[in-house]
Each structure stands twice: as C-alpha cells, then as structure tokens.
Design brief:
It is built from one helix and 15 strands. By secondary structure, it is mainly β. The protein folds into two domains: 116 residues, Roll (Pnp Oxidase, Chain A); 86 residues, no CATH class. The relative contact order is 0.23.
C-alpha cells in the first residue's frame, strides 16, 4: 500500500527518567538522518567482493518557534527551573530633581535586578556609571534601583534601561555541572496525512546543540540538534507506518 507523508507533523520530547512531555509548538521543520560507516572488501577486481556496515548513527534536527525555558531544560540543560522571569525596561523616562537629593527611583525599583545604562533624552549620549560620588555626566546605582547623579545634571531629562524581577514566567538557572552530566530524552515524531500515520520513536536522545538565533526582521526560531542511542534495554526506537 502506497503511503505519503506531507508537512512537519508533530514532535514531542519526554525525559527518559520521567517527566512532563513537551510539544514542539510552531514546528518549522524536523529531520532525522540515519548514516553508517561501510567497509569494502576488495580482491584483484575493481568492484568490492562484499560491503559490511560498521558504526551507525542517528542524527536529528528540529526548529521550533515555541520558546520555553522548561522545555530547553528538559532536552538540553537538565538543571533547575524556578518561577519568575527577568523583564526589561527600555528608555524609561524620568528627570533628575532640581534640588537635592539628586536621585531617581525607577518604576520597578522594588524589583530591581540590573542596570543597563542611562542616556540623556535630548542627545542620546550615555552617562557613565561609577561606584559612588558621581561627577557631571556620571551616576551611581544601588541594588534597590535608586540612581544618584551630580548636581550639574539637575533637571536633566534621562532615559533609564534596566532589568527587573517579575514573579510571572519561569527562569532556567544555568549552573556549571561536571562533564558527563547529560540529559537524555525520548523523541516522538508523528504525522497523519490522507488517513495514514507515520510515527518515529527514538527511545534515548542526547541534544548536541541548541541555537537561539535572533534576527532583525524575523521570529526567534530555536534550532535543536540531537543524536540517538540505545536505551538500557539495548533498543533504539521504532518506526511505524500505515502502509
């Protein structure tokens, strides 16, 4: 029976040791390549007498538009995901007071995380951050999001850039584990077309590369490269078709 497969289908990953499955949303493309080294036995003739397969590998690539910290942790990092995320404030407008104290508390001072620079609103020139006692064109900033300026910058209109902690979202804390710490996951690729289903299950995969390419005029599409290996039962996977 003839069977055709059209479009990307659906791609899922699940930690080998158990855990919630992840679906690759906004799946752009996925490919799985089977390749092997072959050895040729020659005699005195031009063509080989026999060809035997040696080492064999399975490599895959997937591109997804669903950007998810917990999913990245599942198939690449194998570390810790906590609640909360870093939000950014870009060019938040405020002015230095006309009189002492020459300080500005940014809007998210209570959740302040990191300074990303202060600019003069009129000229776009960046002020210089110093540890304390700022001179003209300089500023210092506390861990509580309070910016201090010199008296010469009184009444200046400024643009503030910083990161702040938001209780919503999720954070993947990337540590520095020992070499050999490798998360393994199952990969399931399945597609139904014209009433017939194609499914490939790889029982144990290891991510080789995770790429997050941002472009000026396009979506962020995460690219994952992975390899498959045998599981503890010495099984690699299953490929099923309707035809």
């Amino acid at each position: 029976m003839v069977q055709y497969v059209f479009a990307t289908g659906d791609l899922f990953s699940t930690p080998v040791d158990g855990g919630a499955p992840f679906k690759f949303g906004a799946l752009q493309d996925v490919s799985v390549d089977f390749s092997a080294d072959v050895k040729q036995l020659f005699g005195q003739y031009q063509f080989p007498l026999d060809v035997a397969r040696g080492k064999t590998k399975i490599e895959g690539k997937a591109a997804t538009g669903n950007i998810d910290a917990a999913a990245f942790n599942t198939f690449y990092f194998n570390q810790t995901v906590t609640s909360g995320q870093l939000q950014r404030a870009i060019n938040e407008a405020a002015s230095v007071p006309a009189m002492m104290p020459y300080t500005v508390s940014v809007d998210e001072a209570a959740n302040f995380y990191m300074d990303l620079g202060v600019f003069y609103a009129a000229t776009g020139v960046q002020l210089v951050q110093v540890a304390s006692a700022p001179a003209a064109g300089q500023y210092s900033v506390s861990d509580m999001g309070v910016y201090t300026f010199n008296a010469s910058d009184a009444s200046e209109a400024l643009l503030f850039n910083y990161l702040w902690n938001d209780s919503a979202g999720q954070t993947l804390d990337i540590g520095n584990p020992l070499m050999g710490d490798t998360p393994k996951f199952r990969m399931v690729l399945s597609q139904t077309y014209a009433g017939k289903t194609f499914t490939l299950v790889l029982y144990s995969c290891t991510a080789e590369k995770l790429s997050l390419p941002l472009k000026q005029d396009d979506y962020l599409i995460a690219d994952l490269t992975f390899q498959a290996q045998a599981n503890d039962a010495n099984q690699v996977g299953a490929l099923t078709t309707t035809g």
